[in-house]
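Reproducibility note. Readers wishing to regenerate the assembly model reported in the main text can use the exact inputs given here. Chain order matters: entities are listed in the order in which they were concatenated for prediction.
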Amino acid sequence: MAIAAPAKRRRMSPWHFVLFPLAVLFLVPFAQMLLASFSPAKDLVTFPPPFFPSHFTVDGFVKLFTTTDIMLWLRNTVLVSTAAVLSNIVLCSLAGYGFARLRFAGRNFGFFLVLATIMIPTQLLMIPTYILFAKLGLLNGLGAAIVPWLSTAFGIFLMRQFFLSLPVELEEAGAIDGCNRWQIFFRIVLPLARPAIATLAIFTLLGAWNDLVWPLIAINNTQAFTLQLGIANFQGAHLTDWSLVMAGNVIATLPLIMFFLFAQRQFIATMTFSGLKG
Amino acid sequence: MVDTTLREAGRAPGPMTPDAPGPGKRRGLRSNLSGWAFVAPATAIILGLSIFPAMWAFVLSFQDWDGFSPATWVGTDNYANLISDANFWNAVKNTVVYTLMFVPTSVGLGLLLAVALNRRIRFIGFYRTAIFVPFVVSAASTGVISNYLFSPQFGLVNNVLRVLHLPQQGWLDDPHQAMVVVVIMSLWGSVAFTTVIYLAALQDVPAELLEAARMDGASAWQSFRAIVWPQLAPVTVFVVIWQTIEAIQLFDLVYTTTRGGPLNATTTIVYFLYDKAFHSLEFGYGSAAAYVLFAVTMVITIGVVVYSRRRGQEAF
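Running the prediction on these inputs yields the following structure tokens for the assembly.
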């Protein structure tokens, strides 16, 4: 494993003995998912079950696409996540900037209230929000999944912290050049906020894409299912057809995994920041 | 537009120096309006979907209501019933068991992984990716994978045990083991979080201190104990609180694996309140359970913060 550098042989770090087995262990569930999704359905219910399929087949995927609404659920999830990300970028940037830089009556109290909501667990809100959405006629449609994600307290907090860290001089220069607040915000401040916006987008994407409990409560109609809901529902409907179930799982996880692999630094920055908000 | 711009620009000091006294009432109103125009949309959505429902849930917790017939005021009956409800205490017990297993392992494993990953060695990129990537996998997907991996008949885990000539286990079908499986799979999906937090904190440990310790002949373990671990104390307090809050709110993975079974062995508090509210339509009773959960969360958070302040570790 340790290939010697030409000049000097370096001793292999003993940490490989910790990291290598753990890394493999962490990858096993992915391997199981992928291999099972390409296995013939029969393989997965024989005893003993083969880890590697007897032959590779796309039957699971074919059945998935023909007998379930997976593509519709994928579309729903993409719609919900896109709406959530775009709305958070616009609304949380505006609010974050307002709370960071502008001076108006009720600013500190407003920000305090927003921060206080971070302490409220979602479980406390499920019941009244469900009743509220029922009264508003929002249940069982995509709107039910989108509305709670339109903006997040975390997003406002994140953007505010970022804007506070920007030097005021830039904006003052803009003001002297004759920009009003909106122009300063859109032309000067927002373009500088790209790293914070990336963090906000990833945070919102992860939350909205993977959300289960709220859609579970609010959406009963398979036409408005999100991917997570569809997959969680497979358990009853297709429990014995593991190749189909795992194929659905591949469809549901692959987009975020690919995205993670391409933007790993940004994801890790997001995780670090979401930890630092405490 | 031009007019506004000029007026704004002509007004020294510009809008960015918020302490500047605005000339007169009109100025104050204008800056209030423009300030609220920035913050109002997001603030209204957040407060409307949290503060307002939170207060409503509080009222609900004193009512008996199935969502259809008129609500009746029952005072503190819901809370009194909770205290005498064996199913609720079972859910509390399961949640505590899960928390006691999950929090120490996720913090300990996160620290170990962060220390291991905090070095430049061959394949480090591969190791990091392998350990972090499960973080983006949803609880629903994790649940489905768990069901197959830990299936007593067809699962890989029992198959490995069989090859090693070890006894097969019931895993998710066994009331004594189901929660262990949930802990293992939660760790798989979430240890990246504690790892990343510790990794960031490790990079803030002054290199000079470690260098000095090395010069003085301290072993790697000694400098970890004497220098690194104390430096990490605030982060440790933080991740313990954070993971505890996550743990007592466990729901998704239980829903997608055991649905609270077998024999209610994995029914957590949130699963209990979900079941009460959305299967039995006891909105008042469910809200009371939610408020108990909220109160416990607050007590634990405040408790840990006070305890760590006493010991001189500032986390917040």
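We highlight two features of this model. Chain B touches chain A through 108 residues (CB under 8 Å). The longest strand of chain B covers residues 63-64.
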